[in-house]
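Record type: monomer structure entry
Structure origin: computed from sequence
Chain ID: A
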Amino acid sequence: MAVTRNLPPLSSVRSFEAAARHGSFTLAADELAVTQGAVSLQVRKLEAYLGKKLFLRHPRKVELTADGAVYFEACRRVLADLENATRRMRSRDRNELLIISTIPTIGQLWLMPRLASFTDAHRHIEVRVVSDIRPLDMQADGIDVAIRVGPLAGRHYARDLPGIDLTLVQRWEGVCADYLFDDVLVPVMSRRLYEQGGPIDNLADLVSFELIHTASRPNAWRDWLRAQGAAPPRRRANLEVGHFYIALRAAQEHKGVALIPDVLLDGYPGRGDLVVPFRPARPVKSAGEYYLLIQGTALERPAIQTFRAWVLEQAAAQPRENSPAPASPPSCAAGPAAPPEGLMSIDVAGAQK
């Protein structure tokens, strides 16, 4: 007797998983190369199929329901297993496939604009980039290398630095880290808004404008102002958006001043419409850095060695004249680096970026 599988449409599952992973229909659409409306339609189809509401829709972001969170974990595991099996099948006669995981905004605004130079120079290496906001689990997710930002476990950070509400990895066993650059926040606003309301000579002038807050760094403005001895203004609620790309877009649309990691600015398509209206005498470094993470057992693979050298070269070329001196985290230079004391037992739940 034939058995009919009761499975949802794969296209709907892919759209749902991408939207849940990004916390955004817009970024899911970018990843899948479809429109935001197409992602929304596929998610609605899946909700109708299941008879459950998977997302709470907010004006500028989406949030998983309790049912959605459970279903997302199941979809994530199934798609990861399918992707890994497909990669192994396709790579039997070709071992130069490279899977790169990156948090969405740094991938979109820093990595992707540069990646063509790598693929043009190394056409024998097939590169696949996936976006994820969760703490990295390289073994479970089939990832070769990753770019993440966050505090390095076991490292001491001054309490007055702006916090980063992300965890780099779930398990440090066998994972080594190369420092890329610091996370330095700068205020950004549209050139037109600045010309209408400037000049901005001090923090009091700056906070007289509407402040754009980012949900992934809910305390960024408070921490950034506090690090300079200033307090947030006591006034009406400010605008809040889901992630840095939307914050940049809101600033470009003259809606206020966003606080953005300076590494993201050059890659933003509307950079010419934006200005940094105020820079403190001493840049404010966040309590965390950007790292290239590699599974130590894969360090001998030629594709990974080539990509690692290229990323470090790109990071070294990043302008740092306005940034604090870099930290010295564990490095992959001599093979798998022993993580700092206290890293071996990390097992942290995901955070949103």
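Annotation 1: Residues 321-330, 333-353 have pLDDT under 50 and may be disordered.
Annotation 2: The first strand starts at residue 55 and ends at 57.
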